[in-house]
Design goal:
The chain is mainly α. 73% of the residues lie in helices and 2% in strands.
């Protein structure tokens, strides 16, 4: 028998902690993604001037500058991969909170090195700095969604998971605003764009130590029941946390029964993750959703938004504002996605926007082909911009927030950190492949580039329809049981609560509020565990 906790409410403690997490991790990740976009030409010029000065003012080949710039942007991604893998191990050994605090060390080192590159006349410092901030972003992108999913009430878990992506998009947006020529996008001020990374990391470093660790980590990993109870009281802002504790106890017992090991949460290894029959499907789903996110074409839009607008014949002085407008739409629609996530559910918000993205990319391809054949056709440039914006809207409410959020939902406490690390690493690998290959693909395919993503998206829709489960308003135990080969969980909504006699017989449990009671009839595993 398993009790689903009463629907939790929002309170100042939960909201404040969530803000510190997403500002110090999610926002910083987004800011690092977009911070080099606006000053790209200034950085290229800095590279040109520096290499010319080193070579006795001899002309530096354009290919050398292109290679140096590509390396600068690409080194962020291997750093992210390192951070993602570290996150899976540090989340259990240090805890969620301490791992986030540790990640800020890489921000301080990376931003300091990058900011000093102009004064030192060393492009290499910027490149090395990007590796360090990449490690920070990899850790944050892995741990922040995990932290949010473990502190949020189950009926708000979708909204809280979406907040991670919201602050990622907000970070991208602010980096593009600060990078305008009227602000910090000048030859002398652009290094301070990178120095601004200090602020969210410093705020988190000062405040987060005074906030509790996640209750699930305290109870299920550290076996600190008193600490978990106190943390729950803080995050629920009430002393009535019995049902939350019972739900975590049930998850722990179910996982122990499944593995036959009482200490399974504490000792869960990567080998167990990849060899467990019950975890293969959810791990595949979590990883493939990351593949879908990256190969949907969104990074092609964001990484090369400037070149897309240039090829659409948008005036050069309008392009920075077009990029900012695109990022603003991304932020706004992610805000819309926050309440939608727990109202509409995950599956509809994946499937419907992907269909919209397919139609949109078809229209964008038609516009690019027509414009290439006849550049005089009026309005095609603005239709292309509209297509980009519609694409971003569809992505922002579906593939943007859901893959990382649902990855945290598909697993019980034990395998969750390692699974999140693997899924996050797959995300970074996908980002790296797109970043390194898209320009070559674009040169080879020309105006038909997006046909590749259209074909991929059609396949992704089919996969999502048949293999991705709905996780809306389900506990971690219910979600995990959907992938188990044993009997299903039977879920009943009780209109009337059982009496005391029924409780004594184990048929139900009484609570003050109307709530869900889930009955687990998987007795065979339970009896096997009891024999052990």
């Amino acid at each position: 028998m398993k009790i689903i906790p009463k629907k939790g409410g929002l309170n100042i403690n939960l909201i404040f902690t969530t803000f510190i997490i997403v500002f110090g991790s999610s926002f910083l990740f987004g800011y690092n993604i977009g911070v080099l976009n606006q000053p790209a030409d200034l950085i290229r010029q800095f590279y040109t001037d520096t290499y010319q000065a080193r070579n006795g003012n001899e002309t530096v080949p354009a290919s050398t500058i292109t290679l140096a710039w590509s390396l600068t942007t690409a080194l962020f991604i291997p750093g992210g991969m390192i951070g993602a893998f570290l996150g899976g191990y540090l989340a259990d050994s240090l805890g969620r909170k301490r791992t986030i605090l540790l990640s800020h060390l890489f921000t301080f080192i990376g931003s300091a090195l990058s900011t000093a590159c102009v004064a030192a006349g060393s492009p290499e410092l910027l490149m090395i700095g990007r590796v360090f901030v990449g490690i920070n972003s990899g850790l944050g992108n892995c741990i922040a969604p995990m932290f949010l999913s473990e502190v949020a009430p189950f009926n708000y878990r979708g909204a809280f998971g979406t907040l991670h992506q919201l602050f990622v998009t907000f970070g991208i947006f602010l980096s593009s605003v600060f990078g305008l020529q009227q602000l910090l996008g000048t030859p002398t001020l652009w290094p301070y764009l990178i120095l601004l990374e200090f602020i969210p990391a410093l705020v988190s470093l000062v405040i987060l130590p005074f906030l509790p660790e996640t209750p699930r980590f305290l109870l299920l990993v550290q076996k600190d029941r008193d600490g978990a109870t106190e943390a729950l009281k803080f995050y629920r802002k009430t002393d009535d946390v019995d049902t939350d504790m019972e739900e975590m106890d049930t998850e722990h017992q179910a996982t122990s029964v499944s593995s036959g090991e009482v200490e399974q949460h504490h000792s869960f290894t990567m080998k167990q993750l990849v060899t467990s029959v019950d975890l293969r499907r959810p791990l595949f789903v979590a990883c493939f959703l990351q593949v879908i996110q990256q190969f949907s074409g969104i990074n092609a839009v964001f990484f090369y938004s400037k070149s897309i607008f240039e090829s659409a014949k948008v005036r050069a002085d309008h392009i920075p504002y077009a990029i900012i407008g695109t990022n603003a739409v991304n932020v706004f629609m992610t805000v819309i996605a926050v309440p939608l996530m727990d109202l509409a559910g995950r599956r509809p918000l994946l499937l419907i926007p992907m269909v919209v993205m397919i139609v949109d990319l078809i229209l964008m391809t038609i516009c690019r082909v027509l414009q290439a054949n006849d550049p005089t056709i009026a309005g095609l440039a603005y239709v292309t911009i509209a297509c980009v914006i519609i694409y971003v809207i569809a992505f922002a409410v579906g593939l943007g927030p859901i893959p990382m959020m649902i990855g945290a939902e598909l697993f019980r406490q034990g395998p969750r950190p390692k699974a999140m690390a693997v899924a996050s690493a797959v995300n970074w690998v996908g980002t790296f492949i797109i970043a390194m290959s898209f320009e070559s693909i674009q040169n080879a395919a020309g105006d038909y580039t997006f046909i590749i993503f259209i074909v991929l998206l059609i396949g992704f829709v089919v996969f999502t329809y048949f293999y991705v489960p709905e996780t809306k308003n389900k506990t971690f135990e219910e979600i995990a049981h959907q992938f188990s080969p044993g009997d299903q969980l039977e879920v009943e909504e009780l209109e009337e609560f059982p009496d005391i006699g029924d409780i004594a017989d184990g048929e139900g449990l009484e609570h003050d509020d109307h709530q869900l009671v889930t009955l687990n009839f998987d007795k065979e595993k339970e009896s096997q565990a009891n024999e052990k």
